[in-house]
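Q: Could you fold this chain for me?
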Amino acid sequence: MDFAIFLVQLLNGVQYGLLLFLIASGLTLVFGVMGILNLAHGSMYMVGAYLAWYFTQHTDSFLLGALLSAAVALALGVVIEKTLICRLYKRNHLDQVLLTIGMIFVFNALQSLLWGNDSLGVDVPELLSGSIRLTELVEYPVYRLFVAVLCLVLAATLYLVINRTRLGMLIRAGESNREMVECLGVDINRLYTIVFGAGVMLAALAGVISAPIASIVPGMGEHVLITCFVVVVIGGMGSIKGAFVAALMVGIVDTFASVLFPGVSSMVVYILMAVILLIKPQGLFSN
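A: Sure. Below is the predicted structure, expressed as structure tokens.
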């Protein structure tokens, strides 16, 4: 593998890892704060991609379509939390698994009903459709760099919100001791609604920004959900920092494995998880 190919694959791995973090951060945030194991989280990624296609088709603007998709996803997350998830807080994880698996089937059926089963695609925005030259013979798409930078900005924003704002303080306190936070006069149910809505919006945003570089297909959420669970387990359940480090590791390892070991590339990420759990059974940064 020469340097140019190595550099392209490294950039691809970092970009993929940052995209995985955007999805996994919502998953680990919801589990860490609310104790909810949401197996339908991948469906939110799928919903974001389909909404991006739908709104882009009707507005002729990817930016406007992305903003509308994020707003709809946030509203959807609030509705789901208020009508379904709120009933799970005092139930065990088996009940959570059963309900959220049911949600997967519902979202897949709605996707088929609303948009059919054909593969769809979103054009790369014209402003970001160019490439930058890495070497004399190799260029790299500007849009992929944009995705990486946007994910980094969102990751930094999430870090600042969690660690530097009053809302973040309440979220961390609610994660540690729900009853004590309630005794201090905080509406914990509203806090949980905000957290779940934000988690859904992050997953949907990942679907939105990945739509121009990946096919939009039925069931796309299930595959990414499995990978995100690997990220969350490696990083440590409930740890945003762990999700970030693990997502980069998984993204880079998976990308290079696909090039170097195409026949068994799907195994490499799980081998990585097994090795890390042998050394750190609770994950890299367990809470």
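A (continued): The longest helix spans residues 3-34.
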